[in-house]
Design brief:
about 270 residues, alpha/beta, Rossmann fold, two-stranded parallel ribbon, 9 helices, about 35% helix, binds D-galactaro-1,5-lactone, NAD
Length: about 270
């Protein structure tokens, strides 16, 4: 039975996966800067600040595979992103190498490619177009993952997660929604599939409006079960409560693109009206 470490156990995704993973990976080791508030006595937890390499090494001891959900999960100041995602992300891969960990699943994000317009369908091999410092840190993490796979033989899977949750929250999320159980499937592919070397998959369920070509995940056996369109009415009701956002509504990254946007807005052309 592989010994699995999950960082970011107190965060949004970590809190949900803490409940779903133990039947698959008994003995799952959880980590975060602070323990989850509802930590139960049968869960194993070791605190670590990822910006400290020695602490990263301590949590990687005796581990076969890592689910790296730790770090900053939204746009933030350069200092916060630098410590948690750039230094923290690098430390995590370096600690994994030093401690002989075999596989790492890196939680990347759709914000690594958020500045692609919504009418542009993209695969996982496009040039990164990050939509903020957070997105840049995800591109960095994917690059470090590729380096450690190619140079050190670590088996690395990067998941460009869309929007994780029980249902799509608005119109944009109908295209990028990821059901928790589908994320578990993607994690299992990364942790168990014999042919993984370095892969990038989109973390998305069965979304008819998807902007992403995720065929690589399907080639590795991914069979998502969450159907975004089943929640169409809910998503549209929620969308109706939002203010129009000319930049965010045009690009895949949504509101992350409009934060601090001061470029020429005339480059936003509505192709559907041409
Ligand atoms: C992400 O990467 C964030 O971690 C999450 O909080 C959401 O904002 C999500 O992207 C999204 O794009 O909806």
């Amino acid at each position: 039975m592989p010994r699995i470490l999950m960082t970011g156990a107190s965060g949004g995704i970590g809190s949900s996966l803490r409940k779903l993973l133990p039947p698959i990976y008994p003995g799952l080791l959880l980590s975060d800067i602070k323990p989850p508030k509802d930590l139960s006595p049968n869960e194993k937890f070791k605190a670590a600040d990822l910006s400290d390499l020695a602490q990263c090494e301590a949590i990687c001891e005796g581990v076969d595979g890592i689910l790296h959900f730790g770090g900053y999960s939204v746009e933030g100041s350069w200092e916060d992103i630098l410590q948690a995602n750039i230094i923290g992300g690098y430390n995590l891969f370096e600690a994994a190498r030093k401690k002989g960990v075999k596989r790492v699943i890196f939680a990347s994000s759709n914000h690594a490619v958020g500045f692609y317009p919504r009418h542009h369908k993209i695969g996982t091999d496009v040039t990164p177009r990050p939509d903020g410092r957070y997105g840049v840190s995800k591109v960095f993490g994917e690059a470090v993952g590729a380096l450690y796979a190619d140079k050190h033989g670590l088996k690395v899977t990067c998941l460009r997660i869309g929007n994780f949750g029980e249902m799509p929250l608005d119109h944009r999320r109908l295209a990028i929604w990821l059901k928790p159980e589908d994320l578990v499937q993607l994690c299992r592919i990364g942790l168990e599939h014999p042919d993984i070397h370095f892969e990038i998959f989109y973390g998305a369920s069965l979304n008819e409006r998807a902007w992403w070509d995720n065929h690589r995940a399907y080639e590795f056996g991914y069979r998502p079960t969450g159907r975004a369109e089943d929640f169409w009415q809910h998503a549209m009701d929620e969308q109706a409560k939002l203010k129009p956002d000319p930049v965010g509504d045009y690009y895949q990254g949504g509101a992350f693109c409009s934060i601090e946007f001061d470029a020429d807005p005339s480059r936003i052309i509505d192709w559907s009206k041409r």
